[in-house]
Amino acid sequence: MENKLELFDNADLVTIKNCEFETDFVAISCEITDEGFCKHSGLIISFDESIYYFHFTGVKVHLEDITKTLDSFDSTYIKKLEVIVEEDVVSFLGHCQKLKNKGVKPAYGFVFNDSYYDSNTKQSFLLNAKHDITTCVGFCIKVIRGFIFNNEEYIKLEDWDEDSLESVEQWLFDYINKYLKIYADKNGVSVEDLYSNNELKRILPSELLSSTYFIELPIPKSDIDNVRPSLEKYLISQKKVA
User: Fold this and answer.
1) Mean pLDDT of all residues in the chain?
2) What is the DSSP letter of 194?
């Protein structure tokens, strides 16, 4: 299947508050700052007239029924994830419920590796890694990848490298030397055991949201880069209008 690049179209990029939930679907969500910048990613599942929000806050994983509180999400935009068809939404919701019930508990950090969540395994839901260290974006990627084709990537992670961390260099230095050190000591391993050099990278919430414009997997960074500037510009313009 050929992966056609779609020019940015804001028609299906709407706030949760203004979305029509007449059909079942899975969407990627992005919380927007007052200035219009993307700051937090999550997954929205619309099933049987109920709406669920599955996300990692950096501290805890939440699966929330937000059906009656949609008005409070006027700063969270969503776009449907076309790689998950309507008939599979109920299974995807079950996938998320199993992960939540299994007690998935990632630690926060800019580690992107080959791991994903398999909700059907009886022993460990995390595959291809010993330690679950991730961001809100990485969490979504692991959930999606574990559902769609298991060991096939959703986003082509190797396209991002340490240059993506330039905007958070000081934070990363402190993170490695403080937070990861504490995590390593707690788990009886060395800091070096927690990640490989090519696993430290950053994928932005706006990049994850831009991935919804494509259906052929894995989605390369070059495709996302063709959509992201227009998407970010549009979100900023909406905040200026508001």
Assistant:
1) 90
2) G
